[in-house]
Amino acid sequence: MASNQSSEKPRLISAIELVGAGGYDKLRIKKFPYRVPDVNEVVIRVKFAGLNFADLMRRQGLYSPVPKFPYVPGFEASGIIETIGSNVSNLTVGDRVVTFAGDGMWADTVVVPHDHCFKMPDKLSFEEGAALLVNYITAYQILFEFGNLRPNKSVLIHMAAGGVGIAAIQLCKIVANVTVFGTASASKHNIIKEAGCTHPIDYHTQDYVAEIRKISPNGVDIIMDPLNGEDSVRGYDLLKPLGRIIYFGAANVAASGENRSLLTTFKTWYKCFSTNSLSILSNNKSIAGYHLGYLLKDLDSTKEIALNTINELFRLYNEGAIKPRIDTIHSFSKVGEAMQRMHNRQNIGKILLRPDDESDTNKTDQTTTKQEQEPEERLIDAFPDL
Questions:
Q1: CA–CA separation, 270 and 350 (whole Å)
Q2: Which of 38, 74, 122, 172 is positioned for an S-S bond with 105, CB 3.0–4.6 A?
Q3: Range with lowest mean pLDDT among 3-12, 172-181, 336-345, 352-361
């Protein structure tokens, strides 16, 4: 007589795991046990997840905050709610949503607190949703919270063809008569001009400071600086009186190759702009630092700031004022290729990752190890540090 005991296998979810700081060999596809949500959580079946420059720096061991290895990276994702906790009333099964966290989003299924999850506008695609949160929140808060962007101002946007760069250009267009200078390789100039960049500058062949001085001898009002190092000094010197520079990254640190270089890190740190509260008085310029990773880490205290920005971005999207540009989409098993494309600054707009389907999981990939057959006895949690 057949046994009545269920033979159904335990549900497993697939994710990208980062096992340590280093090259692409530190990434692997792995299976984890499914976790039932608690009363205030929801389960999201992920459609797409975003790749950000911070993910590259985390892999190299150059970014803080970072969880203990091994962990599942990823700051943002879009998908469909498949299960809700008993206390959740603002969301229902089947809702199309976006979500973000300090890590944990590179999985085919994620469990998140319900108040870290946002219904998508009807016209927003899953691809656009996964490209919206990190890039556009960053650009919006830098330009409008720190930068106080107003009509007739000028803005310098470094890495203008990247995800944050495209977002910033689009956001500048919602304010009247803003002059946008953008650094990007020459092959990307037509695209960033179409997006609204007034003066594209090829950083490979041109000195952006000299080129800006030709057009605007007094400099610029706002600088978005994700580079740091020597560029942090050049940018500060390029500001007009009452201008402001916002540092929000250190891409120059990650410019050395697949693995981090301590020499490059030291050189970048040594060349960073340095001042004090007394010496800055006579310069009549403002300096700010922005780090979305720490805002996400302290999301319980910054939730209202994030929600206000997201609501404003959804409004702007519905009005047609902003629209994420998707560069390429890579399966989870091709995450190394996706990172390499971003590291080489080949992307124009957002690079996305998507969970592997059956055809993907049967393929080999040089940038990730083979998928393990047995799950590790630990759970994926999108918010281990929150």
A1: 31
A2: 74
A3: 3-12
Q: Which two tokens stand for residue 245?
A: 């520079």
Cα–Cα distance for residue pair 315/155, rounded to 1 Å: 23
Confirm whether 280 is domain-assigned. no
Q: Do 316 and 329 sit in the same domain of this protein?
A: yes
pLDDT of 325 higher than 90: yes
Judge whether residue 105 has pLDDT over 70.
yes
Confidence of residue 258 (pLDDT cuts 50, 70, 90): low
**Type of residue found at 320:** G
Q: Does one domain contain both 207 and 224?
A: yes
Same domain for 217 and 174: yes
Q: For residue 254, what pLDDT is reported?
A: 66
> What is the three-class DSSP state of 190?
helix
72 is in which domain, residue-wise?
12-132+294-361
**From CA 266, how far away is CA 250, in angstroms rounded?**
12
Residues 6+ apart with CB under 8 A from 321: 170, 173, 174
Long-range contacts of 243-246, Cβ-Cβ distance < 8 Å, separation of 24 or more: 243/219, 243/285, 243/286, 244/146, 244/147, 244/148, 244/285, 244/286, 244/287, 244/288, 245/285, 245/286, 245/287, 245/288, 246/142, 246/146, 246/147, 246/222, 246/288, 246/289, 246/290
Location of structure tokens 């250009």: 169
CA 359 to chain centre: 28
CB 168 within 8 A of CB 135: no
Q: For residue range 181-197, list pLDDT tens digits in order.
A: 999 999 999 999 999 99
Q: Where are the beta strands (DSSP E) in the chain?
A: 12-18, 27-33, 41-51, 76-84, 96-100, 109-113, 117-119, 154-157, 179-183, 199-201, 220-225, 239-247, 286-289, 326-331, 350-354
pLDDT in tens, 135-191: 999 999 999 999 999 999 999 999 999 999 999 999 999 999 999 999 999 999 999
Residue range 40-82, pLDDT digits in tens:
999 999 999 999 999 998 998 888 888 899 999 999 999 999 9
Q: At what angle do helices 126-140 and 163-172 cross, to 10 degrees?
A: 70
Does the N-terminal peptide bond of residue 113 adopt cis geometry, omega within 30 degrees of 0? no
Same domain for 185 and 220, yes or no, is yes
Neighbours of 191 (CB within 10 A): 17
Q: Report residue 222 as tokens.
A: 């706002």
